[in-house]
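Two proteins, back to back. First:
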Amino acid sequence: MAITLNSGFKMPILGLGVWRMDGKDIRNLLINAIKIGYRHFDCAADYQNEVEVGEALAEAFQTGLVKREDLFITTKLWTSDHGHVIEACKASLKKLQLDYLDLFLVHFPIATKHTGVGTTGSALDEDGVLDIDTTISLETTWHAMEELVSMGLVRSIGISNYDIFLTRDCLAYSKVKPAVNQIETHPYFQRDSLVKFCQKHGICVTAHTPLGGSVSNTEWFGSVSCLDDPALKGLAEKYKKTVPQVVLRWGIQRNTVVIPKTSKLERLEENFRVLDFELAKEDMDLIGSLDRKHRTNQPAKFWGIDLYA
């Protein structure tokens, strides 16, 4: 299954996110994922593993496991490179050993102190607060993103962690419209207004935390996982699926792209088996009633400032 973006390119509705994947594990994870059937991989300069991803992809191409044109590869511009968009994209392409990206996203809608192209630093000021650069506008960053399309380095461009206000602004000043807005959304943080606004205006929504972050975000941010919800456990029993499979299927039936992350082979296989069943309308509505407006990914822990305040 795939969604056709406003750029005309098709994006697989199910992908694998590589956030917090250790470099030593990436080769086996990506090779196995391709063998299972994954064709969409979501990366970022800030994940500090583009080199290892690139090595795994090169092996997959060289051994004939898959062709480049059969994969959809996303990576992202870090906040410290907003004034160096073209150089940052080229640095990511070099690490990933690719000639072009299928999708390049503005990772966060804020520019921070430049720390060197591709270094993805999050510089803090003397008070321990993120050192925000107030001289570079998001419009300036976006027009540089558009240049990447003209140069043939990127097929589609998009945004990430943008709210309705910022997404509307981007639509107003863009010549090349954002194809995707990648946001946190899951049963406990549904953000229906933002999802519907994006879809109404031809922007595909990708859920970067489609399972609510599970154990990872509980450990890092002290968040509550939707995977323990009794209603979701009941639906899993009804459909003879796991709770993560039910949650991913819910995301797909909202017409959002889901990119769950896992470092376990059995979870890779489990997460991929979500295209062989369908949730009934009453069960979609039941999950819709579970919203807690609960954000699980909160970078304020590292940045000393709540950018969502």
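And the second protein:
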Amino acid sequence: MYQADEDPDSKLFSTSDKWHEASVNIKLPAEKHRYTSEADAPDCAMDGLYYRKPLEVIRSAYKEVTSKSFHNVLYKLFWQPDKGEFPEHIITEVYTANAMFDEHEKIKAQPCEPGCQLETVIASIMLWSDSTHLASFGHAALWPIYMFIGNQSKYIRNCPSAFAAHYLAYIPKLPDIVHEYYHKLYGQAATSTVLTHLKRELMQAIWLFLLDEEFMHTYEHGIVVQFANNVKCRVFPRFFTYATDYPEKILLACIKFLGKFPCPCCLIPKEKIADLGMKLDRLWRKRDVQLDNHARRSTIERVHDWIFTKGRNIGSTVIDKLLGPMSLVLTHNAFSERLSRFGFDFHSMFMPDFMHKFELSVWKGTLTHLLRILHAFGGDTITWFDAR
């Protein structure tokens, strides 16, 4: 990262690889400071965003040799256990899921682009992000966003030799200069509540920047792409999954960390988490889902108006009473602002991250607890366990 700052021709973020550097602006609220509108409030530029345009990533992915293994024609896989039983729909890939079929039907229902008779294809976008420490000592870290094309089988996509992961951006952290600028602007230090709000705003500002006008035009009208086999199709990008750990997931979903409703996908209250696995719990999860509706968006818009035009404190009781019942935070969601008019609900793309939810949390904790029991039992139990 530092090498890229010092040397504009550095190969770390080379312009030949379509890497760009940019900054995003976020508004700075303060108690008892009123403005005519949110647009009139002062903002602060957050530098250090290294990114590739999503469309450039999609174009390059379809030009690679591995794109020959992409499943651009959708199909459904069924399994019939017995002749007398109904076939069961087996979903093993994104391109065999009902969600992708539904999106394809919506695209086919649209009027064709003038003078275009090309076949329409969905580029299913699967996103990952994970803040990663680079050293055991110190604070060196990177926060990358990865993009995968879901048209490729997971058995190929998960092979390191397939190079299926495309780096989309590196998320900058909230710089220390924000503290100085905030104090110079308002004559007071930024509280922890304000800094937490700015971190949320930074994440959404980055995605608003990435989902630019060019991408949104392509999302609606598609883009002509020539595949590796020299066949041209009109490709429509669609988001299907976004996998990350829980702290990053709530940043993206714009909900409170371990709030009353801690899940970004459903409205199961915290006190009912213990019912996980029960039939009633499954019913609740299907019925009580998080929705990106007008009520949610208007509530957040009202709170923003209070903060910037009336000078309300971000952590005030009034705001907490309005947002608390649904575990919301006062941040506009970038995916909602860009994609809600197309019927896209950003809650639906948050998938469980198997590594963070099981391998690094549940299973790791269970294994550690088992080892402690064996140590307490004594004898040769640990040796016996190793042999097993």
